[in-house]
């Protein structure tokens, strides 16, 4: 009678609760999320939907800032306000109903508007990891954005109006270690095997039970000997076909590892080189000129650069990750062990260089731990840095904006709608009421003149069509819950990317039209 299978280790309550998302961003990502605090400025449907997307996965804490009270018109599009709160604080109502979604999350509220906070205690925002704001007038938006830029707090600004929605990310610098590319190439070093791998490959007999990597190595050597030009790896389709045929000729039966080796010819070579994006990081001033205020990312990047140039003949540290392969267990584990050990050795060298730099900068040795270095070494090929722009820059003349104009028209309806929404916000600041709320035709004319002046001030010789401006006025400031839910869900994803430093966030503006279900991302 066979013995029962060993029991899986018991999951903690937290792991059970957040199991699906931990599979996406790992325990370390979840820890960063659970220690983060965000501020929600302005209780709107889109703002509450964004907050919902953070409370459910377990954000550490959130604070709602809004000085207004709940009115009848607020109840139709916001699930986080109900009739029992009529006449009471919006901030309190939103905070209490959001917190019901996840008791592990700390909620707080402030019965003050963004204008009041900025005028009386602007440092209120300094302690948050990120601020989310929505549907503000132009003046308040620019004051808030400028304050957050000064203190280096990221801002995600959401708009939801009728069938339109936008997200704008303002962030000074964002360093991404785990980009999670869709098509990751495994770094196998077949063309430049390290000593332990070469010894293993040369000393292991190739049978139908060994991983395909050994099969490919054996016939790569055969292919190399046949070449008169001294090529080490196939560089084009014709050469790859020749290598495939070399393997296929030696097959005696339906051998899966041989089939896998033939398929792997396309992807098994070329990894381990420094890509252009990483070269740009290595050449960045922040990497070259470290100081006490340097982000640990740049200290690790400089140590990584030293390792690549001076200790590893121009190659990246070995990630130590192998793809699945059909093989017997012992031979696969043996190969896996060799890769993992080399990866640990490479990361150890980078770690010691990090410690040298920390000592030179008189920074604590525990500023960088071994786990962080192993992670950056494993992900070295996909490291990325995003440097954002101020929202205020969009309101000044810039040559970047000229690319959005073609034949005196704004390129594409989505771009036109984005500028129309900005004209709407300027209307709120200058006129003090919502366009289209009372007299639609009169407001269209006022909105049109505001939009024309705004584009002229930006140096853009273009117009926004009357149809677009009429659409903005027709909405009368109304939020549709379905659109707000979509934009809020997208915005929450961007917040999580920034907090966990995983996946690449938008850079920097996302525009959505629910009428045509079109979207576009622009860098403004």
UniProtKB/TrEMBL annotation:
Entry's Gene Ontology cellular component terms: cytoplasm; NAE1-UBA3 complex
Pathway: Protein modification; protein neddylation
Annotated GO biological process: protein neddylation
Annotated keywords: Ubl conjugation pathway
Alphabetized InterPro entries for the sequence: APP-BP1, ThiF/MoeB/HesA, ThiF_NAD_FAD-bd, Ubiquitin-activating_enz
Domain (THIF-type NAD/FAD binding fold): residue spans on this chain: 18-517
Coiled coil: none
One annotated GO molecular function: amyloid-beta binding
CDD domains: APPBP1_RUB
Protein name in UniProt: NEDD8-activating enzyme E1 regulatory subunit
């Amino acid at each position: 009678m066979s013995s029962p299978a060993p029991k899986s280790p018991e999951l903690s309550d937290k792991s059970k609760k957040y199991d699906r998302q931990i599979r996406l961003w790992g325990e370390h990502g979840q820890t960063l999320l659970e220690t983060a605090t965000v501020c929600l400025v302005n209780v709107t449907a889109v703002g509450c939907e964004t907050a919902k997307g953070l409370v459910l996965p377990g954000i550490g804490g959130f604070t709602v800032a809004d000085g207004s009270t709940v009115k009848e018109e607020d109840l139709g599009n916001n699930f986080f306000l109900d009739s029992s709160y009529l006449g009471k604080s919006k901030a309190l109502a939103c905070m209490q109903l959001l917190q019901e979604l996840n008791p592990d999350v700390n909620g707080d509220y402030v019965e003050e508007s963004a204008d009041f906070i900025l005028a009386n205690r602007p440092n209120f925002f300094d302690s948050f990891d990120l601020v989310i704001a929505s549907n503000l007038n132009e003046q308040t938006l620019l004051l808030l954005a400028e304050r957050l830029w000064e203190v280096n707090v990221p801002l995600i600004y959401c708009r939801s109006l009728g069938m339109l929605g936008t997200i704008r990310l303002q962030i000074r610098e964002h360093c991404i270690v785990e980009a999670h590319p869709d098509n990751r190439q495994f770094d196998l070093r077949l063309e430049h095997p390290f000593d332990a791998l070469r010894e293993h490959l040369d000393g292991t007999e190739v049978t139908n039970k060994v991983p395909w990597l050994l099969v490919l190595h054996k016939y790569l050597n055969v292919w190399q000997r046949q070449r008169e030009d001294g090529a080490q790896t196939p560089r084009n389709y014709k050469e790859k076909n020749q290598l495939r045929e070399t393997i296929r000729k030696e097959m005696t039966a339906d051998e899966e590892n041989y089939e896998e080796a033939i398929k792997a010819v396309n992807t098994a070579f070329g990894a381990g080189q420094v890509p252009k994006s990483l070269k740009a990081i290595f050449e960045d001033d922040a990497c070259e000129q470290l100081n006490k205020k340097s982000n640990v990312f740049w200290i690790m990047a400089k140590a990584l650069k030293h390792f690549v140039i001076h200790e590893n003949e121009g190659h990246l540290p070995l990630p130590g990750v192998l793809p699945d392969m059909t093989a017997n267990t012992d031979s696969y584990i043996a190969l896996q062990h060799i890769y993992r050990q080399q990866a640990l050795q490479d990361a150890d060298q980078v770690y010691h260089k990090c410690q040298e730099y920390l000592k030179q900068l008189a920074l604590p040795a525990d500023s960088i731990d071994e786990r962080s270095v192993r992670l950056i070494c494993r992900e070295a090929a996909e490291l990325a840095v995003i440097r954002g722009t101020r929202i205020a820059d969009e309101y000044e003349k810039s040559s970047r904006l000229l690319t959005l104009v073609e034949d005196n028209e704004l390129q594409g309806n989505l771009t036109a709608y984005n500028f129309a929404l900005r004209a709407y916000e300027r209307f709120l600041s200058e006129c003090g009421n919502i366009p289209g709320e009372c007299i639609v035709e009169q407001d269209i004319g006022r909105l049109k003149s505001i939009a024309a002046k705004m584009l002229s001030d930006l140096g853009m010789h273009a117009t926004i069509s009357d149809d677009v401006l009429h659409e903005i006025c027709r909405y009368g400031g109304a939020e549709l819950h379905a659109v707000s839910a979509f934009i809020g869900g997208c915005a929450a994803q961007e917040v999580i990317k920034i907090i966990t430093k995983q996946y690449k966030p938008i850079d920097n503006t996302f525009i959505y039209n629910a009428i045509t279900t079109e979207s576009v991302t622009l860098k403004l």
